[in-house]
Description:
The protein has 182 residues and is an alpha+beta fold. The chain has 6 helices and 8 strands, in the order E-E-H-H-H-E-E-E-H-E-H-E-E-H. Strand 3 and strand 4 form a beta hairpin. The N and C termini lie far apart (35 Å).
Amino acid sequence: MTPPTLETERLLLRGVEQRDLGGWAELMADPDSARFIGGVLNRAQAWRSMATFTGSWALKGFGMFSVVEKATGRWIGRLGPWQPEGWPGTEVGWGLLKSAWGQGYAAEGATAAIDWAFEHLGWSEVIHVIDVENAPSIALAERLGSTDRGRCELPAPLDKYNVRAWGQSREQWLARRASASR
């Protein structure tokens, strides 16, 4: 499947492209940015990671999007639907460059990705797999309306992480979106 391009007020969410490698490598080289999304990777490892996310579109019909600032054209991260083999559920996750933190980009992009996943993938629920020490992502999950569903297990080699699933049903998401638009 060819990834669609989703547009929000400030962002473009599009398929991952080779030209994204510089930003992807920057994201994964920064210890703070990479801490909760698999750890620091060198450029060659970042390329393989990028290829994995790209391949998800071919294998599953969905995957994470590259996040691009509309105003500048700058690649600032990746987010979107994610469910590799052995994953505990249908996830919308996020990872942004440190320079993009605190600007509401993750919430804006995740909202568009969740809307898309429910509408086009027919998901009945969405989760966010979050390390227990990742307070900013926990706060974002709560802001999106998700609640703590408890500890979950990731497949090896990620099974060493202490993570919890935050989530909500399609009905909860739609009801929250409807009440917010009033």
